[in-house]
Each structure stands twice: as structure tokens, then as C-alpha cells.
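@channel sequence for tomorrow's demo:
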Amino acid sequence: MYIITGATGHIGSEVVKALLAASQRVTGITSDPANKKKIESQGAAAVVADVSDTPKLTEVFNKGIRLYLLNPPAPIDGDPSEKENTQVDSLIAAIRKSTFEKVVAASTYGAQQGKRLGDLDVLFNMEGKLKGAVRDCCIIRGAYYLSNWDMAISMARSDGKIYSLYPPAFKLPMVAPADLAARAVSALLSPPAGHELIQLEGPARYSANDIAKTLGDILHKRIQAVSIRQEDWHPWLVKSGFSPRAAESMVNMTRLTLEGHFPDEKDVEKGDTTPEMYFRKLLKK
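C-alpha cells (generated this afternoon):
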């Protein structure tokens, strides 16, 4: 049995689908009772559980042989860093009590030690604790998700603009969730191999200008990428629904991404999905 956390998200749902297509038995975990039937309709078993509920997780985990570990994002109107670190502790505690022969975990480019760095420190913390908990794990660090642009589509349609915290011409690695899912499934189906680290991005590196042009070509209109000034990041995020603490974490993460260094392209794996492929498929739904 393969256990999947975050089973209805962009990546987890694709992992469930691909494992079922490979004739594997799958249990998907969701915190939302409304999503239970969605998982079951694919042919998988479904369990409703909050990942902070260690006893419930332990019960479910002990029914599986391999785990896809994705720490679900916490609501941005609270304190996501605190909530997500609590989730990490619960997940790792349950993993320690399980008998998994292999764990494949979703992490992020730029994962590093720190405080209030958004995903960067939370997932770095998860990586370290996971390696201390199991002998065989594959950590997949993914680039900036193309799905992060999904919410910009309605604004692009109505106003001809997309907004970014990065300068319009700033190139950064991006990746489609489906490519991350495919690589995760490959790792889940492969023999245990100790502690592995994979870094995955798309075929090239892209800017907000590139995303704007791609959307413009698909929507048949001119789309402009608009950069939010750094001094306006925090108030803009709060206005967009982030709590002050969540906005602080996002600002810190964005600044580190903007000022930091990406992996050398010779050291990464590359998925096949371009922004054009991703958005054309999304807009057909």
C-alpha cells in the first residue's frame, strides 16, 4: 500500500492517479471530508485526517509500505510557519512509529536553515528530521510551481496584467506540478537507495515577462507583467489576504530567492512541461 499525504493537491492528486495506473494500491489522506469521495472516485482508499493528529496518522501509516510525504500548506490568514512546523513534527513522529521501507518527500529549491523564511526553513527542517527518522528517503526539491500563476489568469483576462514580487525580467526556475508528480512516482516505484536528493525544474528558466507573453499568446491579448516594489511587498501581501506574520515570511522567502543562488543546471533534473503546455492544458479544463 502506498500512502499519499496532500492527496487532492496539484501534486498529490497526480501521484495518486499515476500509482493507480501502475496497478498499485493507494490510500490518500485529506483533511477535508468533502474531498474523500474525490479520492475514492479515482479508485483509491481515502482517509480523512489532520496531519497534526499524530495517533491517526500513525494508524494510517502502519497500513503502508511506502509514503509520499507532502506537508500541506497552512492558511495564509494565520501563522503558517508555526502551523507547518507543528505539522512536520506530527508527520515525523508518525513516520518514526511506522515501518515504511521508503519515503519520498516534497521539498523546495533554496531550502535552508533560518526563521520565518516561508517554505525554505520549514521544509529544510522537515528534510533533516526525515533523514534522522528513516534509512531510505528520496527528497525532491522542486522549483517555483507554475501553478502559483493560476490565480493571475483572471486578472490577466480582465485587466491585461499579472503581478509579481520579482522584477519582470528576472529569470527563475519553474516547474509544473505534473512533472514533480511523475518524478515522485518514479522514486516511489524504485528500490530503496539510502538518502537521495533530487532537484527538479522545467525545460528552461522563465521570468514574469515570459509568463505574461505566454498567457497573452493563449488569450489573444497583450498582457503586461507588473512588479511590486520591495518596500510595498508587505502591505500588498496583507491587502491580498496574508496575515502580517504570513506576509513577513513571504517577504523573507522572496528576498532570499531574489538575492540567492539557484542550483547549477548541470546538477538538476528537468521536466518536459513548458509554461505554454501548462497553461493551455489548464485553460481547457
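heads up for whoever presents: The first strand starts at residue 2 and ends at 4.
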